[in-house]
Amino acid sequence: MDATPPPHPEPSRRSVISLPDYRMRPQNEEAEQALLGALLVNNRSYEKVGEFLRKEHFVNLAHGRIFEAITNFVERGQEADPITLRAYFDNDAQLAAVGGGAYLAELAASVVTVVNAEDYGHAIHDNYIRRQIIEIGEQMVNEAYRHDLDITAQDQIEVAERELFDLATKGDVRGGFVPFVRSMEIAIATAEAAYRRQSRVTGVTSGLRDLDRKLGGFHKSDLIILAGRPSMGKTALATNIAVSAAKEFMHSHGKDGAVVGVFSLEMSAEQLATRVLADETKIPSDKIRRGDVRETDFQVFVEASHALTRMPLYIDDTPAITVGMLRTRARRLKRTNNLGMIVIDYLQLMRGSGGGRQENRVQEISEITRGLKAVAKELEVPVLALSQLSRAVEAREDKRPQLSDLRESGSIEQDADVVMFVYREQYYLERAEPVRRPEESEDKAAERHDRWKQRCEEVHNIGECIIAKQRHGPIGTVHLHFDGQFTKFSNLESQHPALEE
Question: Is the full-model pTM beyond 0.85?
Answer without folding.
Answer: no
